[in-house]
Amino acid sequence: MENDTMEVTEFILLGLSQNPKVQSILSLVFLTIYCITWLVNLIIITTVITTPSLHTPMYFLLANLAVIDISESSVTSLKTLWDLFSHTHTISYNWCIAQIFFLHLTGGAVYFLLVVMAIDRYIAIYKPLRYLIIMNRGVCIGLVAGAWLGGFAHSIVQIGILIQLPFCGSNVLDHFYCDIPQLIKLACTNTYIIELLMVSNSGLLLTLIFFALLLSYTVIWLKIRTHVTEGKHKALSTCSAQIMVMSLNFVPAMFIYDRPFKVFPGDKIISVLYTLITPMLNSIIFTLRNTEMKTTVRKLMKKFLPSKRSEPLQIHH
Description:
By secondary structure, this protein is an all-alpha fold. Helix content is 72%, strand content 3%. Helix 1 runs antiparallel to helix 2 (57-86) and helix 5 runs antiparallel to helix 7.
């Protein structure tokens, strides 16, 4: 910006690297990750929808997690891929704010949905006879809607604070997408109090939810180990998958948002993990850890991709 008092209308994203060769490699890697994310999550969604035996609360929630994973990955991946392929690394102020809004909307929805999935497992283990009555279709839809509303409330509070900040100096963001920790440092005002509010809304919330989930899964795990006999291996496998997914989502995000907004070199790598790789791994972990899902996916693949058998050789006399 030529004039430090000029209002910022766009930001320059420095990305992960300024080296053209590295950018070419990153573009292929990110495109591969994004395609795998779409493919795996679409397989999960299609499998759950088309298989009557999977029309249960657990798989309904899993399919909704796949929908959110696709949405969350698209928020950052599409812009990042466009910048890498077109070599244009700018984003307007309005689109930057929009990206932050949808990033925290989908991210918040994931965290609240993981809470719902923990509640589902708790009821399944502690109230097995009343499980399907408690977790009926209306309740499941309401819980998923609540997860989205929770993500919306979390995001709109962040945006409400952010849009009040003046941006009139530097417009260079040392990141590959717009996010609050980097953007807030460019504001032309003292942001100490605002940073504390942001940390409370994001970091503190993440920490409280994470440890609450960790405690609840510990209780569920102990119940399965000591009281469950029938289907014990399946229950343990499902819970271990949910613990792995929970850790993948919460731990990197806590590293970014659970401290005052100081930018470290490792922040970009952590951001790649929880915005690009985690949405891909969530459904893969659930699929690989669930025998019923693996079997159903194989059957579905055989149905739509039948194996070609060689026709017997016919000898004409």
